[in-house]
Amino acid sequence: MLTSADPDVMRVLGDPLRLKIVTLLARETLCTTHLVDETGAKQTNLSNHMKILREAGVVETEPCGRYTYYKLRPEVLTGLSEQFAALAASARTACENKRACP
Predict the structure, then answer these.
(1) Cα 18 to Cα 13, 59, 64, distances in angstroms
(2) Are 22 and 56 in contact (CB under 8 A)?
(3) Backbone angles phi, psi at 73, to 5 degrees
(4) What are the Cα distances from residue 9, in Å, to 38, 65, 91, 98, 101?
(5) What confidence score (pLDDT) does residue 25 get?
(6) What tens digit of pLDDT does each residue of 23-82 get?
(7) Quick one: pLDDT at residue 3?
(8) What is the sign, positive or negative, of the torsion defined by CA atoms of 43, 68, 21, 59?
């Protein structure tokens, strides 16, 4: 079953820009400047999205001089995918179960 933290992660990943950011970070660790270049988002907008991703525990920061690098926390996505896999397995067997109408 989905835990109480997972709706936050799903909500966070439901935003197209944040999903694009997560997709980019799945390939490599990037700084804010790289993410601005890759997404075309304004720096302030991107920073707000990164704050949301950090607070949801999806990404973590790594300071490097005057830059901040972001990297994905794959265990968060692994946990989410395992929960969806469990729901899919349950749904496969549920098609055999039909509750009778009163």
Answers:
(1) 6, 11, 22
(2) no
(3) -100, 90
(4) 22, 29, 22, 31, 36
(5) 96
(6) 999 999 999 999 999 999 999 999 999 999 999 999 999 999 999 999 999 998 888 888
(7) 47
(8) negative
- Amino acid at the residue 72: L
Predicted TM-score (pTM) above 0.85: no
List Cβ neighbours of 83 (8 Å cut-off, separation of 6 or more): 1, 2, 3, 6
Least Cα distance to 1 among 78, 58, 80 occurs for: 80
Which stretches of 26-73 are DSSP H helices? Answer: 32-39, 43-55
pLDDT for 9-23, tens place per residue?
888 888 999 999 999
Tokens of 38: 């890759």
Distance of CA 95 to the CA centre of its chain: 30
Going by DSSP bridges, is the β-strand pair 67-72/59-64 parallel, antiparallel, or unpaired?
Answer: antiparallel
